[in-house]
Specification:
The complex is a heterodimer of chains A (about 210) and B (about 375). Chain A has a domain at about 65-205: 3-Layer(aba) Sandwich (Protein Transport Mog1p, Chain A), CATH 3.40.1000.10. In chain A, a hairpin with a 3-residue loop joins β3 (about 65) and β4. Chain A is of the alpha+beta class. Chain A has helices at about 1-25, 115-125, 135-140, 185-200; strands at about 30-35, 40, 65, 70-75, 80, 90-95, 100-110, 140-145, 150-155, 165-170, 175-185, 205. With about 375 residues, chain B is α+β, with helices and mostly antiparallel strands. Chain B folds into three domains: about 1-105 and about 350-380, no CATH class; about 110-115 and about 270-340, no CATH class; about 125-270, no CATH class. Chain B is about 30% helix and about 40% strand. Chain B contains seven helices and 18 strands. The longest helix of chain B is centred in the C-terminal third of the chain and has 33 residues, at about 350-380. Chain B is globular. The two termini of chain B are about 45 Å apart. Classes of the chains: A alpha+beta (about 210), B alpha+beta (about 375). At the A-B interface, α1, β1, β2 and α4 of A face α4, α5, β5, β12 and β13 of B. β1 (about 30-35) of chain A pairs antiparallel with β5 (about 140-150) of chain B, so a sheet runs across the interface.
Chain lengths: ~210, ~375
Protein backbone atom coordinates (compact mmCIF):
# COMPACT_ATOMS: atom_id res chain seq x y z
CA UNK A 1 0.00 0.00 0.00
CA UNK A 2 2.86 2.31 0.84
CA UNK A 3 4.62 1.99 -2.45
CA UNK A 4 1.67 2.86 -4.75
CA UNK A 5 1.08 6.06 -2.74
CA UNK A 6 4.74 6.98 -2.94
CA UNK A 7 4.89 6.18 -6.64
CA UNK A 8 1.86 8.40 -7.25
CA UNK A 9 3.33 11.28 -5.21
CA UNK A 10 6.73 11.03 -6.90
CA UNK A 11 5.11 10.81 -10.33
CA UNK A 12 3.03 13.92 -9.60
CA UNK A 13 6.16 15.83 -8.51
CA UNK A 14 8.10 14.84 -11.62
CA UNK A 15 5.15 15.58 -13.92
CA UNK A 16 4.52 18.98 -12.27
CA UNK A 17 8.22 19.76 -12.51
CA UNK A 18 8.38 18.97 -16.21
CA UNK A 19 5.12 20.82 -16.89
CA UNK A 20 6.23 23.99 -15.06
CA UNK A 21 9.69 23.90 -16.65
CA UNK A 22 8.54 23.49 -20.22
CA UNK A 23 5.02 24.93 -20.46
CA UNK A 24 6.02 28.30 -19.02
CA UNK A 25 8.96 28.79 -21.34
CA UNK A 26 7.40 31.11 -23.91
CA UNK A 27 10.73 32.11 -25.38
CA UNK A 28 10.92 31.53 -29.10
CA UNK A 29 14.22 31.35 -30.91
CA UNK A 30 12.80 33.00 -34.02
CA UNK A 31 9.85 35.32 -33.75
CA UNK A 32 8.06 37.99 -35.74
CA UNK A 33 6.04 40.75 -34.14
CA UNK A 34 4.87 44.31 -34.66
CA UNK A 35 6.48 47.11 -32.76
CA UNK A 36 5.92 50.89 -32.54
CA UNK A 37 7.80 52.73 -35.24
CA UNK A 38 11.31 53.86 -34.37
CA UNK A 39 13.05 56.90 -35.76
CA UNK A 40 16.12 55.66 -37.51
CA UNK A 41 19.42 57.31 -36.72
CA UNK A 42 21.67 55.17 -38.84
CA UNK A 43 25.27 54.75 -37.84
CA UNK A 44 27.00 55.87 -40.99
CA UNK A 45 30.66 55.11 -41.56
CA UNK A 46 32.89 57.96 -40.45
CA UNK A 47 35.28 59.74 -42.79
CA UNK A 48 38.76 58.35 -42.61
CA UNK A 49 41.11 59.50 -39.88
CA UNK A 50 38.50 61.05 -37.62
CA UNK A 51 35.87 59.95 -35.14
CA UNK A 52 33.38 62.25 -36.84
CA UNK A 53 29.99 60.60 -36.91
CA UNK A 54 27.24 61.57 -39.33
CA UNK A 55 24.39 63.16 -37.48
CA UNK A 56 26.38 63.50 -34.29
CA UNK A 57 26.96 67.24 -34.57
CA UNK A 58 30.70 66.63 -34.29
CA UNK A 59 32.57 68.17 -37.18
CA UNK A 60 36.05 67.05 -38.21
CA UNK A 61 38.46 69.95 -38.04
CA UNK A 62 42.16 70.70 -37.80
CA UNK A 63 43.73 70.49 -34.34
CA UNK A 64 44.45 73.58 -32.27
CA UNK A 65 47.25 73.93 -29.75
CA UNK A 66 46.71 74.27 -26.04
CA UNK A 67 49.10 74.46 -23.13
CA UNK A 68 49.66 74.95 -19.43
CA UNK A 69 52.82 75.84 -17.48
CA UNK A 70 54.15 72.30 -17.80
CA UNK A 71 52.35 70.69 -20.71
CA UNK A 72 51.29 71.34 -24.26
CA UNK A 73 48.78 69.48 -26.43
CA UNK A 74 46.80 69.60 -29.64
CA UNK A 75 43.02 69.46 -29.48
CA UNK A 76 40.58 69.12 -32.42
CA UNK A 77 39.29 72.54 -33.42
CA UNK A 78 35.65 71.71 -32.75
CA UNK A 79 36.40 70.99 -29.07
CA UNK A 80 35.20 73.96 -27.05
CA UNK A 81 38.06 75.19 -24.87
CA UNK A 82 36.69 75.73 -21.36
CA UNK A 83 40.04 76.81 -19.99
CA UNK A 84 41.88 76.10 -16.75
CA UNK A 85 40.74 76.57 -13.16
CA UNK A 86 41.27 74.97 -9.76
CA UNK A 87 43.19 71.76 -10.21
CA UNK A 88 42.39 71.77 -13.91
CA UNK A 89 45.21 72.81 -16.18
CA UNK A 90 42.81 72.64 -19.08
CA UNK A 91 39.34 71.44 -20.02
CA UNK A 92 37.20 71.00 -23.13
CA UNK A 93 33.59 70.32 -23.99
CA UNK A 94 32.55 68.40 -27.09
CA UNK A 95 29.03 68.69 -28.45
CA UNK A 96 28.24 65.12 -29.49
CA UNK A 97 24.68 65.32 -30.77
CA UNK A 98 23.22 68.51 -29.39
CA UNK A 99 21.83 66.83 -26.27
CA UNK A 100 24.90 64.86 -25.24
CA UNK A 101 28.18 66.55 -24.40
CA UNK A 102 31.52 65.02 -23.56
CA UNK A 103 33.74 66.66 -20.97
CA UNK A 104 37.52 66.44 -21.22
CA UNK A 105 39.61 67.52 -18.26
CA UNK A 106 43.35 67.76 -17.63
CA UNK A 107 44.25 67.65 -13.94
CA UNK A 108 47.67 67.57 -12.30
CA UNK A 109 48.30 66.14 -8.85
CA UNK A 110 51.40 65.48 -6.77
CA UNK A 111 53.53 62.37 -7.27
CA UNK A 112 51.76 60.63 -4.37
CA UNK A 113 48.32 60.89 -5.90
CA UNK A 114 47.42 57.24 -5.57
CA UNK A 115 48.55 54.07 -7.27
CA UNK A 116 47.46 53.04 -10.74
CA UNK A 117 45.15 50.45 -9.15
CA UNK A 118 43.45 52.93 -6.84
CA UNK A 119 42.93 55.49 -9.61
CA UNK A 120 41.58 52.96 -12.10
CA UNK A 121 39.30 51.41 -9.48
CA UNK A 122 38.01 54.88 -8.49
CA UNK A 123 37.04 55.50 -12.13
CA UNK A 124 35.59 52.00 -12.42
CA UNK A 125 33.42 52.83 -9.41
CA UNK A 126 32.24 56.00 -11.17
CA UNK A 127 30.89 53.91 -14.06
CA UNK A 128 29.64 51.24 -11.63
CA UNK A 129 32.12 48.54 -12.62
CA UNK A 130 33.55 46.26 -9.93
CA UNK A 131 37.04 46.91 -8.59
CA UNK A 132 39.92 44.87 -9.94
CA UNK A 133 43.06 43.50 -8.31
CA UNK A 134 46.43 45.08 -9.03
CA UNK A 135 47.24 42.34 -11.54
CA UNK A 136 43.88 42.68 -13.28
CA UNK A 137 44.26 46.46 -13.50
CA UNK A 138 47.67 46.03 -15.14
CA UNK A 139 46.11 43.69 -17.67
CA UNK A 140 43.17 46.01 -18.33
CA UNK A 141 45.15 49.11 -19.29
CA UNK A 142 47.11 49.95 -22.41
CA UNK A 143 50.57 51.49 -22.36
CA UNK A 144 50.90 53.98 -25.23
CA UNK A 145 53.76 56.08 -26.44
CA UNK A 146 53.07 59.69 -27.40
CA UNK A 147 54.98 62.95 -27.42
CA UNK A 148 55.17 62.73 -23.63
CA UNK A 149 56.74 59.29 -23.78
CA UNK A 150 54.99 56.29 -22.26
CA UNK A 151 51.63 56.82 -20.64
CA UNK A 152 48.74 54.66 -19.47
CA UNK A 153 45.46 54.65 -21.40
CA UNK A 154 42.19 53.05 -20.33
CA UNK A 155 38.58 53.02 -21.51
CA UNK A 156 35.82 52.09 -19.05
CA UNK A 157 32.37 51.31 -20.47
CA UNK A 158 29.67 49.53 -18.52
CA UNK A 159 26.99 48.06 -20.78
CA UNK A 160 24.38 48.16 -18.04
CA UNK A 161 25.12 51.82 -17.23
CA UNK A 162 25.91 53.29 -20.63
CA UNK A 163 24.90 56.79 -19.60
CA UNK A 164 28.37 57.37 -18.19
CA UNK A 165 31.65 56.05 -19.54
CA UNK A 166 35.23 57.16 -19.13
CA UNK A 167 38.32 57.20 -21.32
CA UNK A 168 41.42 58.40 -19.53
CA UNK A 169 45.19 58.71 -19.73
CA UNK A 170 47.72 58.92 -16.90
CA UNK A 171 51.09 60.61 -17.41
CA UNK A 172 53.48 60.02 -14.53
CA UNK A 173 56.61 62.15 -14.11
CA UNK A 174 58.87 62.46 -11.05
CA UNK A 175 57.23 65.68 -9.86
CA UNK A 176 53.59 65.21 -10.67
CA UNK A 177 50.93 63.13 -12.35
CA UNK A 178 48.73 64.42 -15.16
CA UNK A 179 45.27 62.86 -15.52
CA UNK A 180 43.46 63.41 -18.82
CA UNK A 181 39.90 62.19 -18.67
CA UNK A 182 36.94 62.15 -21.02
CA UNK A 183 33.51 61.59 -19.45
CA UNK A 184 30.41 61.04 -21.58
CA UNK A 185 27.74 58.41 -22.35
CA UNK A 186 29.17 55.20 -23.78
CA UNK A 187 28.19 55.87 -27.39
CA UNK A 188 29.88 59.28 -27.29
CA UNK A 189 33.04 57.88 -25.68
CA UNK A 190 33.19 55.13 -28.31
CA UNK A 191 32.72 57.53 -31.19
CA UNK A 192 35.03 60.24 -29.87
CA UNK A 193 37.73 57.82 -28.78
CA UNK A 194 39.88 58.19 -31.87
CA UNK A 195 40.10 61.98 -31.47
CA UNK A 196 40.68 61.56 -27.75
CA UNK A 197 43.55 59.13 -28.28
CA UNK A 198 45.11 61.51 -30.81
CA UNK A 199 44.73 64.24 -28.19
CA UNK A 200 46.38 62.07 -25.52
CA UNK A 201 49.23 61.19 -27.89
CA UNK A 202 49.83 64.90 -28.51
CA UNK A 203 50.35 65.75 -24.83
CA UNK A 204 53.98 66.70 -24.22
CA UNK A 205 56.04 68.24 -21.45
CA UNK A 206 57.38 71.74 -22.11
CA UNK B 1 19.29 -1.97 -10.16
CA UNK B 2 16.53 -0.22 -8.19
CA UNK B 3 18.26 -1.17 -4.96
CA UNK B 4 21.48 0.48 -6.15
CA UNK B 5 19.61 3.63 -7.21
CA UNK B 6 17.96 3.79 -3.77
CA UNK B 7 21.25 3.55 -1.90
CA UNK B 8 21.76 6.29 0.70
CA UNK B 9 25.47 6.13 -0.15
CA UNK B 10 24.70 7.93 -3.42
CA UNK B 11 23.13 10.80 -1.51
CA UNK B 12 26.03 10.85 0.97
CA UNK B 13 28.77 11.07 -1.64
CA UNK B 14 26.97 13.45 -3.99
CA UNK B 15 26.38 15.78 -1.05
CA UNK B 16 30.13 15.83 -0.36
CA UNK B 17 30.80 16.50 -4.05
CA UNK B 18 28.25 19.36 -3.98
CA UNK B 19 30.15 20.89 -1.07
CA UNK B 20 33.37 20.66 -3.10
CA UNK B 21 31.65 22.33 -6.06
CA UNK B 22 30.32 25.14 -3.86
CA UNK B 23 33.79 25.66 -2.40
CA UNK B 24 35.54 25.67 -5.80
CA UNK B 25 32.85 27.81 -7.44
CA UNK B 26 33.01 30.39 -4.66
CA UNK B 27 36.79 30.63 -4.89
CA UNK B 28 36.85 30.81 -8.68
CA UNK B 29 34.07 33.41 -8.74
CA UNK B 30 36.63 35.98 -7.60
CA UNK B 31 38.61 35.49 -10.81
CA UNK B 32 35.99 34.76 -13.46
CA UNK B 33 32.96 36.59 -12.09
CA UNK B 34 29.61 35.43 -10.73
CA UNK B 35 27.87 34.46 -13.97
CA UNK B 36 30.80 32.49 -15.41
CA UNK B 37 31.33 30.65 -12.09
CA UNK B 38 27.63 29.81 -11.93
CA UNK B 39 27.69 28.48 -15.50
CA UNK B 40 30.92 26.53 -15.03
CA UNK B 41 30.30 24.88 -11.67
CA UNK B 42 26.56 24.81 -11.04
CA UNK B 43 24.68 25.00 -14.37
CA UNK B 44 26.91 22.51 -16.19
CA UNK B 45 26.58 18.78 -16.70
CA UNK B 46 30.34 18.34 -16.66
CA UNK B 47 33.20 20.33 -15.21
CA UNK B 48 36.36 19.96 -17.29
CA UNK B 49 39.60 20.07 -15.35
CA UNK B 50 42.31 21.58 -17.53
CA UNK B 51 39.74 21.69 -20.30
CA UNK B 52 40.00 17.90 -20.80
CA UNK B 53 39.31 15.74 -17.76
CA UNK B 54 35.55 15.65 -17.04
CA UNK B 55 34.09 15.69 -13.54
CA UNK B 56 30.38 15.86 -12.66
CA UNK B 57 29.05 19.43 -12.82
CA UNK B 58 26.39 20.84 -10.50
CA UNK B 59 23.50 19.95 -12.82
CA UNK B 60 24.56 16.30 -13.17
CA UNK B 61 25.19 15.98 -9.42
CA UNK B 62 21.76 17.39 -8.54
CA UNK B 63 20.13 15.16 -11.16
CA UNK B 64 21.75 12.13 -9.48
CA UNK B 65 20.52 13.33 -6.07
CA UNK B 66 17.02 13.78 -7.48
CA UNK B 67 16.91 10.31 -9.06
CA UNK B 68 18.29 8.80 -5.86
CA UNK B 69 15.66 10.54 -3.70
CA UNK B 70 12.80 9.70 -6.09
CA UNK B 71 13.79 6.01 -6.15
CA UNK B 72 14.20 5.90 -2.39
CA UNK B 73 10.85 7.62 -1.91
CA UNK B 74 9.05 5.43 -4.43
CA UNK B 75 10.42 2.03 -3.52
CA UNK B 76 11.81 2.08 0.00
CA UNK B 77 9.89 4.63 2.08
CA UNK B 78 7.18 3.19 4.32
CA UNK B 79 4.32 5.11 5.86
CA UNK B 80 4.13 4.53 9.62
CA UNK B 81 3.79 6.92 12.53
CA UNK B 82 7.53 6.81 13.11
CA UNK B 83 8.37 7.42 9.43
CA UNK B 84 5.76 10.09 8.62
CA UNK B 85 8.01 13.03 9.56
CA UNK B 86 10.92 11.62 7.57
CA UNK B 87 8.72 10.97 4.55
CA UNK B 88 7.28 14.49 4.63
CA UNK B 89 10.81 15.92 4.90
CA UNK B 90 11.82 13.68 2.04
CA UNK B 91 8.88 14.96 -0.01
CA UNK B 92 9.85 18.58 0.75
CA UNK B 93 13.43 17.95 -0.38
CA UNK B 94 12.19 16.41 -3.63
CA UNK B 95 9.98 19.42 -4.19
CA UNK B 96 12.94 21.75 -3.56
CA UNK B 97 15.06 19.96 -6.16
CA UNK B 98 12.15 19.95 -8.62
CA UNK B 99 11.77 23.73 -8.07
CA UNK B 100 15.47 24.14 -8.77
CA UNK B 101 15.03 22.33 -12.07
CA UNK B 102 12.04 24.49 -13.00
CA UNK B 103 14.07 27.64 -12.24
CA UNK B 104 17.15 26.41 -14.11
CA UNK B 105 15.12 25.42 -17.14
CA UNK B 106 12.40 27.99 -17.34
CA UNK B 107 13.54 31.18 -15.56
CA UNK B 108 14.88 34.15 -17.47
CA UNK B 109 15.69 37.70 -16.55
CA UNK B 110 16.81 41.02 -17.91
CA UNK B 111 16.48 44.75 -17.55
CA UNK B 112 13.64 47.06 -18.54
CA UNK B 113 14.73 50.66 -19.05
CA UNK B 114 12.05 53.36 -19.24
CA UNK B 115 12.38 57.13 -19.52
CA UNK B 116 10.03 59.40 -17.61
CA UNK B 117 6.96 59.83 -19.79
CA UNK B 118 7.79 56.70 -21.76
CA UNK B 119 6.48 53.16 -21.60
CA UNK B 120 7.77 49.70 -22.33
CA UNK B 121 6.39 46.19 -22.71
CA UNK B 122 9.66 44.31 -23.00
CA UNK B 123 12.91 43.68 -21.16
CA UNK B 124 16.34 42.87 -22.54
CA UNK B 125 18.38 39.83 -21.54
CA UNK B 126 21.56 40.61 -19.61
CA UNK B 127 23.60 37.96 -21.37
CA UNK B 128 22.04 36.92 -24.68
CA UNK B 129 21.61 38.88 -27.89
CA UNK B 130 19.35 38.65 -30.93
CA UNK B 131 19.69 39.81 -34.51
CA UNK B 132 16.71 42.03 -35.26
CA UNK B 133 15.66 42.61 -38.86
CA UNK B 134 13.15 45.45 -38.78
CA UNK B 135 10.86 46.15 -41.71
CA UNK B 136 9.89 49.84 -41.60
CA UNK B 137 7.59 49.70 -44.63
CA UNK B 138 4.23 49.06 -42.86
CA UNK B 139 2.41 52.36 -42.25
CA UNK B 140 1.37 51.97 -38.63
CA UNK B 141 4.02 49.80 -37.00
CA UNK B 142 7.39 48.25 -37.77
CA UNK B 143 7.53 44.51 -38.32
CA UNK B 144 10.37 42.92 -36.37
CA UNK B 145 11.97 39.56 -37.15
CA UNK B 146 14.18 38.52 -34.24
CA UNK B 147 16.68 35.66 -34.36
CA UNK B 148 17.95 34.62 -30.93
CA UNK B 149 21.58 33.92 -30.08
CA UNK B 150 21.06 30.14 -30.28
CA UNK B 151 20.36 30.55 -34.01
CA UNK B 152 23.50 32.58 -34.60
CA UNK B 153 26.15 29.88 -34.40
CA UNK B 154 28.72 29.98 -37.22
CA UNK B 155 27.54 28.13 -40.31
CA UNK B 156 23.83 28.31 -39.48
CA UNK B 157 21.49 29.63 -42.16
CA UNK B 158 18.24 31.45 -41.39
CA UNK B 159 15.61 32.44 -43.92
CA UNK B 160 13.06 35.20 -43.44
CA UNK B 161 10.34 34.18 -45.86
CA UNK B 162 8.33 37.41 -45.77
CA UNK B 163 11.41 39.39 -46.83
CA UNK B 164 12.94 36.69 -49.03
CA UNK B 165 16.15 37.18 -47.07
CA UNK B 166 18.71 34.49 -46.26
CA UNK B 167 21.17 35.11 -43.46
CA UNK B 168 24.23 32.88 -43.19
CA UNK B 169 26.23 33.29 -39.98
CA UNK B 170 29.97 33.50 -40.63
CA UNK B 171 31.22 34.32 -37.12
CA UNK B 172 29.70 34.88 -33.72
CA UNK B 173 31.80 36.29 -30.88
CA UNK B 174 30.65 36.14 -27.27
CA UNK B 175 32.75 39.24 -26.66
CA UNK B 176 34.28 41.45 -29.29
CA UNK B 177 36.27 44.53 -30.12
CA UNK B 178 35.19 46.88 -32.88
CA UNK B 179 38.00 48.55 -34.82
CA UNK B 180 37.77 51.29 -37.33
CA UNK B 181 39.49 50.32 -40.57
CA UNK B 182 42.21 52.51 -42.02
CA UNK B 183 42.20 53.73 -45.64
CA UNK B 184 44.59 50.97 -46.71
CA UNK B 185 42.47 48.23 -45.10
CA UNK B 186 39.33 49.66 -46.69
CA UNK B 187 40.99 49.65 -50.10
CA UNK B 188 41.65 45.92 -49.69
CA UNK B 189 38.05 45.01 -48.77
CA UNK B 190 36.16 42.72 -51.17
CA UNK B 191 33.35 44.42 -53.08
CA UNK B 192 30.60 42.55 -51.26
CA UNK B 193 31.27 44.17 -47.85
CA UNK B 194 28.27 46.31 -46.91
CA UNK B 195 27.20 48.81 -44.27
CA UNK B 196 29.44 48.95 -41.23
CA UNK B 197 31.63 46.21 -42.72
CA UNK B 198 33.07 48.86 -45.05
CA UNK B 199 34.32 50.93 -42.13
CA UNK B 200 34.70 48.61 -39.16
CA UNK B 201 36.06 45.23 -38.27
CA UNK B 202 34.81 43.13 -35.36
CA UNK B 203 37.10 40.55 -33.76
CA UNK B 204 36.60 38.17 -30.86
CA UNK B 205 38.22 38.82 -27.49
CA UNK B 206 38.18 37.03 -24.13
CA UNK B 207 35.08 37.27 -21.95
CA UNK B 208 34.61 40.09 -19.45
CA UNK B 209 34.48 39.31 -15.76
CA UNK B 210 30.98 40.72 -15.59
CA UNK B 211 29.10 38.74 -18.22
CA UNK B 212 26.68 41.59 -18.93
CA UNK B 213 29.63 43.76 -20.01
CA UNK B 214 30.38 41.43 -22.94
CA UNK B 215 29.86 43.06 -26.33
CA UNK B 216 28.85 40.28 -28.68
CA UNK B 217 29.98 40.51 -32.30
CA UNK B 218 28.47 38.98 -35.44
CA UNK B 219 29.53 38.58 -39.07
CA UNK B 220 26.85 37.43 -41.54
CA UNK B 221 26.40 36.99 -45.28
CA UNK B 222 23.01 38.23 -46.46
CA UNK B 223 21.52 37.12 -49.76
CA UNK B 224 18.19 37.17 -51.58
CA UNK B 225 18.06 40.90 -52.30
CA UNK B 226 19.49 43.17 -54.97
CA UNK B 227 23.17 42.96 -55.86
CA UNK B 228 23.96 46.23 -54.01
CA UNK B 229 22.64 44.95 -50.67
CA UNK B 230 23.63 41.28 -50.80
CA UNK B 231 26.93 40.73 -49.05
CA UNK B 232 28.77 40.69 -45.77
CA UNK B 233 27.64 42.67 -42.73
CA UNK B 234 29.30 43.05 -39.34
CA UNK B 235 27.62 43.91 -36.06
CA UNK B 236 28.56 44.62 -32.51
CA UNK B 237 25.93 44.57 -29.78
CA UNK B 238 23.95 47.78 -29.57
CA UNK B 239 23.63 49.12 -26.06
CA UNK B 240 20.04 48.95 -24.87
CA UNK B 241 19.56 52.44 -23.62
CA UNK B 242 16.79 54.98 -24.08
CA UNK B 243 19.41 57.54 -25.17
CA UNK B 244 20.26 55.30 -28.10
CA UNK B 245 16.75 54.85 -29.48
CA UNK B 246 17.05 54.16 -33.17
CA UNK B 247 20.81 54.55 -33.18
CA UNK B 248 23.28 51.97 -34.36
CA UNK B 249 20.88 50.51 -36.91
CA UNK B 250 22.27 49.47 -40.28
CA UNK B 251 19.68 50.65 -42.78
CA UNK B 252 19.24 49.29 -46.28
CA UNK B 253 16.76 49.32 -49.15
CA UNK B 254 15.53 45.75 -49.51
CA UNK B 255 13.38 45.11 -52.57
CA UNK B 256 11.84 48.57 -52.30
CA UNK B 257 11.36 48.33 -48.53
CA UNK B 258 13.33 50.20 -45.93
CA UNK B 259 14.69 47.72 -43.41
CA UNK B 260 17.25 47.97 -40.65
CA UNK B 261 19.41 45.44 -38.85
CA UNK B 262 20.67 45.48 -35.31
CA UNK B 263 22.38 43.11 -32.90
CA UNK B 264 20.83 43.90 -29.53
CA UNK B 265 20.02 42.38 -26.15
CA UNK B 266 17.48 39.58 -26.59
CA UNK B 267 14.03 41.02 -25.95
CA UNK B 268 11.22 39.33 -24.07
CA UNK B 269 7.77 40.82 -24.32
CA UNK B 270 5.42 41.11 -21.38
CA UNK B 271 1.66 40.57 -21.49
CA UNK B 272 1.29 44.09 -20.04
CA UNK B 273 3.01 47.44 -20.45
CA UNK B 274 4.58 49.74 -17.89
CA UNK B 275 4.50 53.53 -18.24
CA UNK B 276 6.85 55.60 -16.09
CA UNK B 277 5.34 58.72 -14.52
CA UNK B 278 8.17 59.69 -12.22
CA UNK B 279 11.39 58.44 -10.62
CA UNK B 280 12.40 59.44 -7.12
CA UNK B 281 15.93 59.13 -5.79
CA UNK B 282 16.67 59.87 -2.13
CA UNK B 283 20.18 60.33 -0.78
CA UNK B 284 21.65 60.07 2.68
CA UNK B 285 21.84 63.61 4.08
CA UNK B 286 24.86 65.53 2.90
CA UNK B 287 26.16 62.70 0.70
CA UNK B 288 25.72 61.41 -2.81
CA UNK B 289 25.09 57.91 -1.48
CA UNK B 290 21.71 56.61 -2.57
CA UNK B 291 19.22 55.83 0.18
CA UNK B 292 16.36 54.65 -2.01
CA UNK B 293 14.89 54.61 -5.51
CA UNK B 294 11.19 54.65 -6.31
CA UNK B 295 9.41 54.41 -9.65
CA UNK B 296 5.86 55.65 -9.99
CA UNK B 297 4.37 53.63 -12.82
CA UNK B 298 1.10 52.92 -14.56
CA UNK B 299 0.54 49.32 -15.49
CA UNK B 300 -1.73 48.73 -18.46
CA UNK B 301 -3.08 45.21 -18.32
CA UNK B 302 -6.13 43.66 -19.97
CA UNK B 303 -7.40 47.11 -20.98
CA UNK B 304 -7.22 48.50 -17.43
CA UNK B 305 -4.75 50.97 -15.96
CA UNK B 306 -3.52 50.83 -12.39
CA UNK B 307 -1.03 53.09 -10.67
CA UNK B 308 1.75 51.30 -8.80
CA UNK B 309 4.92 52.20 -6.95
CA UNK B 310 8.00 50.02 -7.44
CA UNK B 311 10.69 50.48 -4.83
CA UNK B 312 13.68 48.55 -3.58
CA UNK B 313 11.70 46.19 -1.35
CA UNK B 314 8.41 46.49 -3.16
CA UNK B 315 8.55 44.73 -6.53
CA UNK B 316 5.70 44.64 -9.01
CA UNK B 317 4.37 41.12 -9.60
CA UNK B 318 2.05 40.35 -12.47
CA UNK B 319 1.29 37.33 -14.66
CA UNK B 320 4.34 35.38 -13.51
CA UNK B 321 6.73 38.32 -13.94
CA UNK B 322 8.43 40.20 -11.13
CA UNK B 323 9.84 43.70 -11.68
CA UNK B 324 12.36 44.87 -9.11
CA UNK B 325 13.67 48.41 -8.75
CA UNK B 326 17.27 47.94 -9.79
CA UNK B 327 18.82 51.25 -10.78
CA UNK B 328 18.19 54.82 -11.85
CA UNK B 329 20.07 56.20 -14.81
CA UNK B 330 20.38 59.39 -16.78
CA UNK B 331 22.05 62.69 -16.07
CA UNK B 332 19.10 63.85 -14.02
CA UNK B 333 17.96 60.43 -12.83
CA UNK B 334 15.15 60.36 -15.36
CA UNK B 335 15.48 56.73 -16.48
CA UNK B 336 14.46 53.81 -14.34
CA UNK B 337 15.98 50.36 -14.59
CA UNK B 338 13.67 47.52 -13.55
CA UNK B 339 15.26 44.09 -13.18
CA UNK B 340 12.61 41.77 -14.60
CA UNK B 341 12.38 38.07 -13.89
CA UNK B 342 10.06 35.34 -15.04
CA UNK B 343 10.30 32.22 -12.92
CA UNK B 344 7.53 29.64 -12.72
CA UNK B 345 9.37 27.95 -9.85
CA UNK B 346 9.66 31.13 -7.77
CA UNK B 347 7.33 29.99 -4.99
CA UNK B 348 8.50 26.37 -4.84
CA UNK B 349 11.40 26.99 -2.39
CA UNK B 350 8.98 28.67 0.06
CA UNK B 351 6.50 25.77 -0.01
CA UNK B 352 9.17 23.08 0.10
CA UNK B 353 10.93 24.79 3.04
CA UNK B 354 7.64 24.87 4.95
CA UNK B 355 7.04 21.19 4.15
CA UNK B 356 10.58 20.26 5.27
CA UNK B 357 10.07 22.20 8.55
CA UNK B 358 6.74 20.44 9.17
CA UNK B 359 8.36 17.06 8.48
CA UNK B 360 11.27 17.72 10.82
CA UNK B 361 9.00 19.03 13.58
CA UNK B 362 6.70 16.04 13.23
CA UNK B 363 9.65 13.70 13.39
CA UNK B 364 10.92 15.49 16.51
CA UNK B 365 7.49 15.21 18.19
CA UNK B 366 7.15 11.53 17.32
CA UNK B 367 10.66 10.70 18.43
CA UNK B 368 10.65 12.90 21.54
CA UNK B 369 9.47 10.18 23.99
CA UNK B 370 12.20 7.86 22.74
CA UNK B 371 14.75 10.65 23.02
CA UNK B 372 13.71 11.38 26.61
CA UNK B 373 13.71 7.69 27.60
CA UNK B 374 17.13 7.21 26.03
CA UNK B 375 18.45 10.15 28.03
CA UNK B 376 16.97 8.70 31.19
CA UNK B 377 18.51 5.35 30.31
CA UNK B 378 21.90 6.99 29.83
CA UNK B 379 21.48 8.80 33.16
CA UNK B 380 20.60 5.56 34.98
CA UNK B 381 23.59 3.86 33.46
Amino acid sequence: MDKPINIIIATIIVAAMLYLAYSNDDREDAKTYNSPKVTIVAEKPAPEGSSFKEGSGVKPTEPTEGSSDSYSWEAPKHWLNKGAGGMRVGSYEVDYDGAIKAEITLITLGPNSGSLTSNINRWRGQVELASLSEEEVKNSVETRTGKFGKFIYVKLVNDTHPDKAIAAAIYRSPDEVLFVKMTAPANAVNDLEKDFIAFCDSVATK
Amino acid sequence: MIKTLCSPKIFFYTLIWLMVLVFLGTLHQKDIGLYAAQEKYFSSWFLYIGGVFPLPGGRLTLAVVFVNLVCKFMFQSKWSLKRTGVNITHFGALLLLAGGFVTAKGAYEGIMLIEEGGESNYFSDYHEVELAVIDHSPQQEDQVHALSQSLLSPGSVQTLDSLGMTIKVVEFYKNSSKFKLGPHQISLLPNNYRGDARAFSVTGIGPEKESEANMQGLVVDISGGDEEVNGRYVFQKNLNHPYLKGQGLQVLEWKGKKISLSLRGRRYHLPFSVALDDVETKYYDGTSKVLSYKSFVNVEEDGANRARVISMNEPLRSKGYTLYQSQVLGRHGEITGLATVKNAGRQVPYYSSIIICIGLLLHLVVMFPKLVSTKKGIKNV
